[in-house]
């Protein structure tokens, strides 16, 4: 551990140990980060499953992706009156948008739940969430901040904190040859 060398008022050297968050062992915080990681991962995975199978929560069975429905149409068509509505509603129902969206939901959800690929999940999740945030502008209940931006912050913090090491396969995954060669996959 590095030492901070400052000076007291009397000129003596200060030998206080420098402590960084990554160097401190906080098992309770690690477990709480793991719970947050799994919970947010489940939100993404659940959205994928409900849109795929139409289990009747956000997606009726008749509009399920496996029954020919579009997982992006409902949300994106509902943005037509918003600031960027023309751009987003024009993407609604496009097969490439549906595939990209569903692949993103699945990949982000699985990565967060497993605790592997957290960096890519944070970037992909952040991009997906910022696009969803932008599609809803202007926000109805706040000038700029909503749950999309809060999730971006939390997912980024989880990736930076190596939250996949607790109750996940992040520790093992990070030691693989592939991840050592391509750290973005961590």
What value does the average pLDDT take? 89
Q: What order do the helices and strands follow?
A: EEHHHHHHHH
Q: How would you describe the shape?
A: globular
Distance between the termini: 24 Å
Largest β sheet strand count, sense and barrel closure: 2 strands, antiparallel
Q: Helices and strands: which structural class?
A: mainly alpha
Helix percentage: 40-55%
Write the layout of secondary structure elements.
Elements: E1 6-7, E2 13-14, H1 27-53, H2 73-77, H3 85-89, H4 95-114, H5 118-135, H6 147-160, H7 170-174, H8 177-181
Antiparallel strand pairs: 1-2
Helix pairs in contact: 1-4, 1-6, 4-5, 5-6
Fold and architecture overview:
The chain has 186 residues and is mainly alpha-helical. The chain has 8 helices and 2 strands, in the order ββαααααααα. It has helices at 27-53, 73-77, 85-89, 95-114, 118-135, 147-160, 170-174, 177-181, and strands at residues 6-7, 13-14. The protein has a two-stranded antiparallel ribbon with strand order 1-2. β1 and β2 form a beta hairpin. α1 (27-53) packs across α6 (147-160) and α5 (118-135) packs antiparallel against α6. It is globular. The protein starts with 5 loop residues before the first strand and ends in a 5-residue tail after the last helix.
């Amino acid at each position: 551990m590095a030492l901070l060398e400052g000076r007291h008022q009397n000129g003596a050297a200060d030998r206080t140990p420098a402590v960084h968050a990554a160097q401190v062992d906080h098992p309770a915080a690690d477990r709480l980060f793991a719970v947050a990681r799994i919970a947010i991962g489940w939100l993404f995975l659940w959205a994928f499953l409900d849109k795929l199978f139409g289990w009747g929560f956000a997606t009726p069975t008749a509009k399920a992706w496996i029954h020919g429905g579009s997982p992006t149409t409902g949300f994106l068509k509902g943005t037509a009156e918003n600031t960027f509505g023309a751009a987003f509603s024009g993407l609604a129902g496009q097969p490439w948008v549906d595939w990209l969206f569903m692949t993103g939901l699945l990949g982000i959800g699985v990565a967060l739940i497993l605790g592997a690929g957290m960096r890519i999940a944070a970037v992909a999740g952040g991009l997906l969430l910022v696009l969803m945030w932008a599609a809803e502008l202007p926000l109805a209940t706040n000038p700029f901040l909503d749950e999309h931006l809060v999730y971006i912050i939390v997912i980024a913090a989880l990736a930076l904190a190596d939250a996949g090491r607790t109750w996940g396969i992040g520790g093992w995954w990070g030691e693989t040859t592939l991840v050592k060669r391509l750290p973005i996959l961590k």
